[in-house]
Design brief:
The protein is α/β, with parallel strands linked by helices. Helix content is 32%, strand content 24%. The chain is built from 18 helices and 25 strands. Strands 17, 18, 19, 20, 21, 22, 23, 24 and 25 form a nine-stranded mixed β-sheet that branches. Strands 1-2-3-4-5-6-7-8 form an eight-stranded parallel β-barrel, surrounded by six helices. β14 and β15 form a beta hairpin. The longest helix is centred in the N-terminal third of the chain and has 21 residues. The chain is elongated. The two termini are 54 Å apart. 48% of the residues are buried.
């Protein structure tokens, strides 16, 4: 279906918004009146600019407080409308959005509303314009889509139809099934927006917290299916008011917006994309660093062994069990400090995973390689992390490990088998990635739509210097877990560190081995353990050991979770954890204590 986006969704000047929408692949735009008023371009120049960019102007909006008003007020409204319709003709827009009135002058009189909307539509028809009437969720007398349709149907004018807005419908808890009772040709426009499920004033909810489909808690795909059953054949248009989006760069926001409609159309059964290739594990995590020594000292103390070096690049493979860490000191990957730069995702069909990622507008990354190197498909996540789709030790597929030459007498296979002692690390349990403050919702949609990971509820975590927002995404079986975190303020200077969580069968033994090897664990205040004794029935010996090693504890109906942390190296630290099979969380209750301890470490 054709796609459109309201200019209010994006930051910048009108020209910048139009350019971003076009480059992201949209077919049309809704021109928000404030954007036109602030533009130095004439309506004719805007029309030409849109045509040059391949964009249609699908809607001009909004026209407010028009209907069900006293006669003298309606006369003024018609005068205003005539002027706007003339402007729209110059602009090349043929549909205007009229919102249900919130004016204190509006009367609770459906017959009057229908009669005045019919007169407005008759005037619009003289200019070749249609009127799409929308029920605002906070409308003074008309606030539901079925009520708005009743008024439109009563008016009975061919140039008058309804506009359906998913936020206004779903935020009120209205049943969207009734949409199927509206003839498709009378649905003049469809606006789509998602939102997190919040208990707050609906007007403030709408004006500040809307997001793109798939980023919130509404069933947008279900609503869309109801709309399609009417025979509606107009565009799918996004109208999102969001404080973060309007401050972020327009180009990536527009790409994220278009991706949301691609995922939505797939979910609603409109189009078919390359199917998800659900990752089955984490093949490796890659650290980029200007100085390998600090991080390799930590890896050595954790029990990792440097098993191999890349045949053509300054990249070392460190391994323990099924946990693999690449340390990259090359200039192309070098950062100001050590950072998590790339993730290798174990993919059943790596080329298929790459095809889906590309279809969903993920940037495909060029890769420097020699003729002998294994071809690896890679894309960039919204935070810039490189995601490689790869295969490990599967004879039927090219193995990325063949690019690495064993060092000394530590072949990778032997090392993987050797790390089976009680204190050994078995695998990477999860990765925590810091998101730029304006990419958090985008990251959620990206990991869900592109990788097929299931998002959990967003969690707010108290940091001593602000509030962090965190959301985990994972496969159904937990083989791949990624935690997305963002700070509250639009600055990267104090962004939370990234971390790699390593699973072990005995966190106490693993922590002791790390300490004995010279590693430094994060020290946790004694007050935490005093509180732990009150919350859980733990023995004095357990509490003493946990406090000695800085081990934190959590438990739910599924089991227990024990974890501790290394000191931070650059922007990365490691977590050692022991997870009971039924425990599905990440120890979020302990995060404020850990964050405070890191600030004082």
């Amino acid at each position: 279906m054709r796609t459109s986006i309201a200019t209010v969704c994006l930051s910048g000047s009108l020209t910048e918004k139009l350019t971003a929408a076009s480059r992201a692949g949209f077919d049309g735009v809704e021109i928000f009146e404030n954007d036109l008023l602030a533009s130095p371009l004439t309506p004719e120049e805007i029309r030409t600019r849109c045509a040059d960019l391949g964009l249609s102007i699908d809607l001009y909006q909004p026209m407010r407080d028009t209907e069900a008003v006293p006669a003298d007020e309606f006369a003024r409204n018609l005068r205003r409308a005539r002027h706007k319709f003339d402007l729209m003709r110059r602009l090349g827009a043929d549909t205007v959005l009229v919102c249900s009135s919130v004016s204190p002058l509006a009367l609770d009189d459906d017959d009057l509303a229908a009669e005045q909307l019919s007169r407005l539509a008759a005037l619009a028809q003289e200019f070749g314009i249609r009127v799409a009437y929308e029920a605002l969720a906070w409308g003074r007398h008309i606030s539901t889509y079925d009520h708005a349709w009743h008024v439109v149907e009563s008016a009975g004018h061919p140039a008058l139809g309804t506009c359906l807005d998913s936020f206004h419908i779903l935020s009120r808890g209205s049943n969207p099934k009734g949409i199927e009772d509206i003839p498709g040709e009378k649905i003049f426009f469809l606006q789509l927006a998602d939102a997190p499920l919040l208990a707050m004033d609906v007007l403030q909810w709408s004006r500040h917290y809307r997001c793109f489909p798939g980023q919130g808690g509404f069933d947008i795909a279900g609503l869309l299916r109801h709309v399609l059953r009417t025979g509606y054949d107009g565009p799918l248009s996004l109208e999102v008011f969001n404080d973060v989006f309007r401050q972020a760069e327009a180009a990536p926001t527009a790409v994220d917006a278009h991706r949301s409609l691609l995922v939505l159309q797939e979910a609603a059964g409109i189009t078919q994309l390359p199917p998800p290739d659900f990752p089955s594990g984490i093949a490796f995590a890659e650290l980029a660093t200007p100085d390998a020594q600090p991080v390799t000292q930590v890896l050595d103390a954790l029990g990792f062994t440097r098993t191999a070096r890349h045949r053509s690049k300054p990249v070392d493979l460190w391994q323990q069990g099924e946990a693999r860490i690449l340390v990259n000191t090359g200039t192309a990957a070098r950062r100001e400090s050590t950072a998590l730069a790339a993730i290798g995702l174990e993919s059943p069909d790596p080329p298929a995973a790459a095809r889906r990622a590309e279809a969903l507008l993920a940037p495909v990354l060029p890769r420097r390689r020699t003729p002998q190197d294994i071809p690896l498909d890679a894309v960039a996540a919204p935070d810039g992390t490189e995601l490689f789709f790869c295969a490990t030790s599967r004879p039927e597929l090219p193995d990325w490990q063949t690019d690495f030459i064993p060092v000394d007498d530590h072949p990778a296979a032997a090392t993987a088998a050797a790390a089976t002692d009680l204190a050994g690390i078995g695998r990477i349990d999860h990765l925590a990635l810091t998101q730029p403050w304006h990419h958090f919702d985008e990251a959620t949609l990206f990991h869900r739509g592109v990788l097929g990971l299931r998002p959990q509820e967003s969690v707010d975590v108290a940091d001593p210097y602000g509030l962090l927002r965190s959301r985990a995404v994972s496969t159904a079986d937990g083989a791949v877990r990624i935690v997305l975190t963002v700070g509250a303020a639009p600055t990267d200077g104090d962004a939370p560190a990234q971390h790699i969580a390593l699973a072990t069968d005995d966190v106490i033994a693993a922590a002791r081995r790390f300490s004995a090897a010279g590693g430094r664990l994060l020290k946790i205040p004694a007050n935490y353990y005093d509180d732990l004794a009150a919350r859980f029935d733990l023995t004095d010996d357990e509490l003493e050991i946990y406090q000695e090693l800085g081990i934190l504890y959590d438990r739910d109906a599924g089991g227990a979770f024990r974890h501790c942390y290394t000191r931070t190296v650059g922007r990365v630290f490691f977590e050692l954890l022991q997870r009971d099979a039924g425990y599905q969380g990440y120890g979020a209750q302990n995060a404020p204590v850990r964050l405070a301890a890191q600030h004082t470490a």
